[in-house]
């Protein structure tokens, strides 16, 4: 089984890779962030993507969405520190097969990988119940603009990165602020991140 492991924290990535290498038949390729993982997905064939959610570049959920859009036969398991409702809902919509917390026991990860590869979906029951909470009011374009704003990018920078006009970016950010009842773009990003919508 060829596994793409995408995790931006070197120590965590190394520990996960070491754990997976103990399992017979697992071939692990490491990616240091979401953009690196996407480049590997475009050039190599994998059976499973094991990825963090929040990483520089593309998020784990964005990677799962890309796999789904390309109709690749790659299963995805997200591992994260946060069990936020917004993440879980977006992950399920993106076709993710497994959702685990980083503080889950290590044997649970191996079990989840085998279960997911057998066609099952593995999501912690408590996390699944959490996902029944509030729905995400942001659309993908608003989310991408708000994420870049949260990174400190100017409206002009965001417009360049998303290939949009500055006016369109201002509209997306304004809509985000309004939908989240925030006072400004920083407050909107804080609220969205806390809810798991960013």
Automatic annotation (TrEMBL):
Keywords: DNA-binding, Phosphoprotein. PROSITE patterns: HTH_LUXR_2, RESPONSE_REGULATORY. CDD domains: LuxR_C_like. GO terms for molecular function: DNA binding. Gene3D superfamilies: 3.40.50.2300, Winged helix-like DNA-binding domain superfamily/Winged helix DNA-binding domain. The modification 4-aspartylphosphate is found at residue 52. Residues 2-117 form the Response regulatory domain. It comes from the Bacteria. Residues 131-196 form the HTH luxR-type domain. SMART domains: HTH_LUXR, REC. GO terms for biological process: phosphorelay signal transduction system; regulation of DNA-templated transcription. PANTHER family: TRANSCRIPTIONAL REGULATORY PROTEIN DESR, TWO-COMPONENT RESPONSE REGULATOR. This is DNA-binding response regulator. It comes from Cellvibrio polysaccharolyticus. The lineage of its organism: Bacteria, Pseudomonadati, Pseudomonadota, Gammaproteobacteria, Cellvibrionales.
């Amino acid at each position: 089984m060829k596994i793409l492991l995408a995790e931006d924290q070197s120590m965590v990535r190394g520990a996960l890779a070491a754990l997976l290498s103990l399992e017979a038949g697992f071939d692990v390729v490491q990616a240091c962030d979401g953009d690196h993982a996407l480049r590997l997905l475009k050039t190599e064939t994998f059976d499973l993507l094991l990825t963090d959610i929040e990483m520089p570049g593309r998020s784990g959920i964005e990677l799962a969405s890309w796999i789904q859009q390309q109709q690749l036969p790659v299963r995805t398991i997200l591992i994260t520190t946060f069990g936020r409702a917004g993440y879980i809902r977006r992950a399920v919509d993106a076709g993710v097969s497994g959702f685990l917390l980083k503080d889950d026991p290590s044997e649970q990860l191996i079990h989840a990988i085998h279960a997911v590869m057998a066609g099952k979906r593995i999501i912690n029951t408590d996390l699944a119940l959490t996902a029944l909470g509030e729905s995400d009011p942001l659309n993908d374009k608003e989310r991408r603009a708000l994420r870049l704003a949260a990174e400190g990018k100017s409206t002009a920078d965001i417009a360049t990165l998303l290939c949009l006009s500055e006016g369109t970016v201002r509209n997306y950010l304004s809509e985000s602020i309004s939908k989240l009842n925030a006072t400004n773009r920083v407050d909107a990003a804080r609220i969205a991140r806390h809810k798991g919508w960013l």
